[in-house]
Protein: Urease accessory protein UreE
Amino acid sequence: MLLIETLYTGDASATEQLILDFDARTKSRLRTTLASGEEVGLFLPRGTILRGGDKLRGADGRIIAVVSAPEELLEARSNNARELTRAAYHLGNRHVAVEVGSDAQSDWIRIQADHVLETMLVGLGAQVRKLSAPFEPEAGAYAPGHHHSERGATEAKIHVMGGAHG
Structure:
């Protein structure tokens, strides 16, 4: 089994891919497989959140690209900025990881699929659709430099670590 303990920030091209959904990318200790089928063990610093486009270095020197796997999501849109802002507020109040984006049609927010939250979003006036896509939520309050003293030191922190972040 290949051991991976190091993030890689150099310019070398990756020769392997590690395809993980967001929940798996929040684990600093994980036994999984590369896209090639080779078994790997992740032993990263506690609190590390991997993003699509990040690179890792295997114990044997290989460079591994992190790929965000498509997962079941809900996308909420509204023609009214106030309604979309209210939806984002209520999701944040529930500590739900949210990806914020836009396209030629409008602004949107995405969350991992959850039927209770879907009902809430519809009740707040959002147009909600289901889709399968990579999930790259906002760094938010858990980015470097923002801490709550009442929270434990082992709490996961979402942060940007370089690479392509959707």
